[in-house]
Design a protein that fits this description.
12 helices, 2 strands, mainly alpha, ABC transporter involved in vitamin B12 uptake, BtuC, about 80% helix, amino-acid transport
């Protein structure tokens, strides 16, 4: 009975931690979902943006004493600027004047972002070295029965859901959001309605980068010693799985996919170990692609 009660307690704690982690996973995947859904760009460098967001939080904490919750808006502003620069430096040359995003354009942007991914990860390894670093941030905990739930995890989970909600409102209730959705669906029709496709695509890319880097800052509260130059190699596949699970272009789909993956990973590692739990989470792609290739919510 004692062993059974311990396992039950571990499962409940794993479930709660999986929900908290899944909300942050969803925010990170939202950035990929945006750039994929708007500009039809499969951003291979997505994981490196998560890494840069985490390092941004680390250095802001190291030199200015900011906690990860305060660094997220700064990371988002840096990500917005980086996204605009990335669009005009790399994407605009290929996408300008196109009335539809062709397979050729998708392949060109895929190769370009792959090169960017390699460049960022190797430069980060040179600049930051391969040592793991972290942010010593403890916001306390809340006790519910025999459980102690870290408040930092609750804060970032709630903020992640708020950001996803605001993004949903932006895309569905504002002129800019309608312009972004129109561009993603039919570029010629969007032009006829007076929408500037270059401005819309640039803003959408900047917004995607901003959300991703903010998510990288939030991750530092859940994994306080996991910041390293190659962390993007883990979070990029996680984001792709989440987008496929929830359906490309669907904001709430990112949350559903993120929660699914977070729970599977955290509960699964209790019985299977960390490596196998991650493998099982990634294997979720197979039945989804076979049975509902358009995503769980569609």
């Amino acid at each position: 009975m004692a062993d059974a009660s311990v396992i039950v307690a571990q499962v409940i704690f794993g479930l709660i931690r999986g929900i908290l982690l899944g909300c942050v996973f969803a925010l990170i995947a939202l950035g990929l979902n945006l750039v994929w859904g708007i500009a039809k760009v499969v951003n291979i460098a997505h994981g490196e943006l998560v890494m840069l967001g985490a390092y941004g939080a680390y250095f802001l904490n190291l030199f200015l004493g900011f906690n990860p919750l305060l660094t997220a808006p700064i990371d988002a502003a840096l990500g917005l600027a980086a996204g605009l620069g990335f669009y005009f430096a790399i994407l605009h040359r290929e996408l300008r004047g196109k009335e539809a995003i062709t397979l050729q354009s998708e392949m060109v942007t895929l190769v370009a972002t792959f090169g960017l991914s390699l460049a960022i990860s190797n430069l980060a390894n040179i600049a930051f070295t391969g040592n793991f670093v972290g942010i010593p941030f403890d916001a306390g905990s809340i006790e519910i029965g025999f459980l102690q739930i870290p408040l930092a995890g609750i804060y970032v989970a709630v903020l992640s859901v708020v950001i996803i909600s605001l993004t949903h409102v932006l895309l569905n209730r504002t002129y800019l959001g309608n312009a972004i959705r129109a561009y993603s669906q039919d570029i010629p029709a969007a032009k006829l309605m007076g929408i500037n496709p270059t401005a819309v695509a640039a803003i959408g890319t900047g917004l995607a980068f901003a959300v991703t880097m903010a998510g990288g800052a939030f991750l530092t509260t859940l994994f306080p010693t996991g910041i390293n130059p190659y962390m993007g190699a883990l979070y990029a596949p996680i984001s792709y799985v989440i987008v496929v699970l929830g359906g490309p272009g669907r904001m709430w789909g990112s949350l559903v996919g993120g929660l699914t993956l977070g729970i599977v990973i955290d509960v699964g590692q209790i019985f299977l170990g960390v490596e196998i739990a991650y493998a099982v989470a990634f294997l979720l792609l197979i039945p989804v692609l076979l049975l509902r290739p358009e995503g769980i919510l569609r």
